[in-house]
Structures are given as structure tokens and as C-alpha cells.
Amino acid sequence: MKIGLVRHFKVKKDNPGMALLSQKEVMQWFAEYDEADIKTGEVDLGGIAWTRCYASDLPRAVKTAETIYDGENIRTAALREIPIYPVFRGEAKMPFWCWAFILRVAWLLNHPSQLEGKKAVQARISTLLDDILLKGGEDVLIVGHAAFMLFMRKELVNRGFRGPALRTIANGRLYVFEKAEGSEIGL
Q1: What domains, with CATH codes, occur in the chain?
Q2: Are the C-beta atoms of 147 and 162 separated by less than 8 Å?
Q3: Which of 19, 65, 85, 138 fits as disulfide partner to 51, beta carbons 3.0 to 4.6 Å?
Q4: pLDDT at 157 (0 to 100)
Q5: Its pTM surpasses 0.85
């Protein structure tokens, strides 16, 4: 059994660079990013006959899945990017990269401002993989988001899949994880 992870195609929304932004402006940028169009391309699917494709229900993942996979795409909120929420009150202004770092670290440290913590994300991934694996030993394609893919990889490895390390996750690139034939599927 193989599970292929693909990060959505590159989004047509430039980050604000070094402009000083308030937290409210950064959150607005993220909301616009979630709805922005993508720069479609091609993905080498490794010559694998994928039997099913799951995709995040966010537009960038849906459009990527529709572009790279001809069969039915199963859209699910379970594959959504890990959400981030405002951390501070007030209108402090910082460069975008500072905000992105602070907001992601707040999530990693389980700051109370972050409504979906690591355990909830891990449970979301575990439940989704249980569902996929219960349907049999088919080769399944999953189209999602970078941060989510890092946690998905960890769960796949914990369940006995082998695949590449994910350091810098490229847009529109396939990462294949394989479970040895005859080995038990960890649920």
C-alpha cells in the first residue's frame, strides 16, 4: 500500500514582505490566502495507479487535486491546514515574517489563543488515516498543506510506512510513503 502526499500548487498571493502590519492585517492576509487562486502545474505521480484521492476542502487543495487526479476527489475538512488565531490584543506592527513565526510558535507551544492544539490535530490525522486504511490496501493520494503534511508524515511512520523526510515541502510535488506488502496496517 502506498500513500502519496502532495502539497497544493503555489498560491497566487505574495506575502507582504517587510511591510509593517498589525495582527489584524496579517489575519486578513491569511483569510485572503485561503481563498486565493493557484498557479497550476504538473505533478509527476510516479507512474502509480492511485485508486482514491483525498483533498483538503480549501480551494487551493481542491483545485490542485482536480488538476492532478482524474477520478473522484474526496474533499474533507479533516485535511485543512492547521489554523492559527490571533495571539495579542492591540495594534502592534511587525513584518509579516515576525507575525508568521510568532503565530506558528504560539500553536506549537499550545498557547491558549490557539483553538485547535497539537493533540486535536494529531487526532484529526489519526481518524482520517484510520478511515483510509480501513477501506483496504489501495494506493491513496492525499492533497493538503505543508504544516499538516509534517504531522501526517509522523503518523504514517508511526504506523509502519516508510518515506522521505519532509524538510522543505515543495508545492506540487509527490512524496510517497509505502507500507511493506503483507505487513499489518496499524490502526
Answers
A1: 2-178 (3.40.50.1240)
A2: no
A3: 138
A4: 96
A5: yes
